[in-house]
């Protein structure tokens, strides 16, 4: 079942991203809305074959420097599975607002321990070799059989760069030299933040890891955007393609807004 993802990327002209409404397989339906600090713009059917009623927020370089531009939808709207039992003693929990706080937490009814849920950090590499991009076809769910950049959850005890290099090795058996940060893409609705780095292959040697069916280098104009596993990866790849064609690579920050239609 397909859906629509609304993405905004700082420092990128609106006209370049008038089609950043991406169909993705892993999510059902979304409500499109304007986030605080971003000017609502009406889509033109001259640029996209989409209904004119859909609006896309604009994030310019000037806006991204303002405090308002960094505000997002309230975190209370984010989806998170409830903690029903205390991980410490196994007793049931109740969800209420602890004294001195503003948000409901899972509190153990026996030992009183307050359990906090925090966003997950996903790290990975946008690996290039001779103007081609390395992609991995997933051998696991979610998005089995679709292409992605080598990326995964950051582990305790490692830096973001270390985690990105590790994930690249695990998924593509590729050794890389990290060159620079490329993009941070926040997904508040599902509690994830992606940190992606630009990297080069140390040698042209790579092969599928345990989580990959195959790995391949793609020319810029041959990236299979209709077979990309995750909205965050599709946005990152589109940003890279635009940077590449302009001849100037940037560091990007964006928010992917996944709010379900109720």
TrEMBL record:
Record keywords, A-Z: Hydrolase
Origin: domain of life: Eukaryota
Recorded GO MF terms: hydrolase activity
Gene3D superfamilies reported for this sequence: 2.20.70.10, Nucleoside Triphosphate Pyrophosphohydrolase (3.90.79.10)
Name listed for the protein in its UniProt record: Nudix hydrolase domain-containing protein
Entry keyword annotation includes Hydrolase: yes
Hydrolase listed as a keyword: yes
Residue ranges annotated for the Nudix hydrolase domain, each copy included: 118-241
């Amino acid at each position: 079942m397909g859906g629509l993802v609304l993405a905004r990327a700082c420092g990128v002209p609106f006209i370049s991203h008038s089609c950043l409404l991406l169909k993705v397989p892993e999510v059902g339906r979304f409500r499109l809305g304007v986030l605080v600090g971003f000017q609502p713009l009406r889509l033109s059917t001259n640029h996209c074959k989409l209904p004119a009623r859909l609006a896309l927020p604009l994030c310019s370089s000037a806006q991204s420097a303002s405090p308002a531009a960094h505000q997002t939808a309230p975190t209370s709207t984010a989806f998170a599975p409830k903690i029903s039992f205390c991980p410490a003693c196994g007793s049931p929990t109740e969800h209420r607002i602890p004294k001195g706080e503003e948000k409901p937490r899972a509190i153990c009814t026996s030992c009183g321990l307050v359990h906090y849920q925090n966003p997950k950090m996903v790290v990975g590499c946008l690996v290039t070799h001779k103007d081609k991009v390395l992609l991995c076809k997933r051998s696991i769910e979610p998005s089995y059989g679709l292409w992605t950049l080598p990326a995964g959850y950051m582990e305790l005890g490692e830096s973001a760069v270390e985690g990105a290099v590790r994930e690249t090795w695990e998924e593509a058996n590729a050794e890389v030299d990290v060159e620079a940060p490329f993009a941070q893409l926040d997904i508040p609705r599902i509690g994830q933040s992606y940190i992606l780095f630009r990297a080069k292959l140390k040698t042209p040697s790579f092969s599928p890891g345990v989580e990959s069916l195959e790995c391949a280098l793609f020319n810029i104009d041959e990236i299979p955007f209709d077979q990309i596993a995750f909205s965050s990866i599709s946005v990152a790849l589109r940003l890279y393609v635009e940077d590449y064609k302009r001849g100037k690579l940037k560091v990007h920050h964006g928010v992917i807004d996944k709010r379900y239609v109720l």
